[in-house]
Amino acid sequence: MAAPVHEPEANARELTRQEGAVIFNEAAQRYLKMSGPEFLRKWDAKEFGDDPDQPGVMDVAFLLPLVR
Amino acid sequence: MIPISRESWTWRSSFPLSANSEAEAVTAYLKRLQRILDCVSQDVVHVTPGGYQRLGQPHGAMLNRGRPTRLGRTPALLLNVALRYVIVREETDQRAWAIQTVGYIYSLRDGTDTEFLAYHWHPNDGSRVRHPHLHIRDGVLSPASPLRRAHVATGMVALEDVIQTAIEEFGVPPRQRHQHDWRDVLAATRAAP
User: Fold this and answer.
1) Could you say which of A3, A36, A49, B32 would form a disulfide bridge with A25 (CB–CB 3.0 to 4.6 Å)?
2) In whole angstroms, how far apart are CA B31 and each of A14, A43, A67, B34, B169?
3) Is B125–A17 a contact, with Cβ atoms under 8 angstroms apart?
């Protein structure tokens, strides 16, 4: 007989806009040593080159729904 | 079997009349992610603001508030999980809701927080590479290695596969509560509709 499948210990949670902005800023600092607003400016200006699939850049870009 | 194509991958969670809301579809989707991750981490999945509503708009789900989460003890491995999803109406039943995964980043980092494997699928984020692929960024690669810049094509990679790889190939111990049933947990989430 298969072992019982546990329910997860934790439950997912929705972030607030304020939390999202903090997390986004932390990620930009962590991966690219820049602020969240600075990342947004560079992203919008396409200053990350022809292909943004670079270490750190896509990790931060994936978090854009936190702030947009 | 999960329906797969090169440009879109649909992971459906549909519901009968008793569960016909966007929020219930998202809740089931997130519970499934949390159940998979629970095998190796007690950290929580978070969704971006508004992530339980707004039909058709891309939302984000991430483990540990977007920070790589520590797996195991010594030497530690770090896991980063981020997904994009949209809420859609079921094609066959307009009263039901479905969730489509529309992108992912699953990456493994070593104890110094250096990424060495990254499974990517980001068809809508400005990259020329729209298909699912793998980055190999191991520090032992020579500077001239073509692997350093390669996008190695993959099929769609399920989160279950990443967790299984972490356990079986990189020695990440399953959590105590899943020491004996982690395979069953992953098999159950893989088999879920």
Assistant:
1) A36
2) 13, 32, 24, 5, 26
3) no
What's the rounded Cα separation, in Å, for the pair B51 and B46? 9
For residue A64, the chain B residues in CB contact (below 8 A) are: 60
Question: The tokens 């919008």 sit on which residue?
Answer: A44
**Does the beta carbon of B148 lie under 8 angstroms from any beta carbon of chain A?**
no
Composition of chain B by helix, strand, coil, percent to 5: 25, 25, 45
Q: What residues of chain B lie within 8 A of the CB of A5, using their CB?
A: 35, 181, 184-185, 188
Reported ipTM: the value is: 0.88
Report the mean per-residue pLDDT for chain B. 85
Please report the pLDDT score of residue A6 as a whole number. 67
The number of C-alpha atoms within 13 Å of B114 and in the hemisphere containing its C-beta is 7
Question: Tell me: the pLDDT tens digits for A21-53?
Answer: 999 999 999 999 999 999 999 999 999 988 899
Give the H/E segment covering residue B74: none
Number of other CB atoms surrounding residue B124 within 10 Å: 10
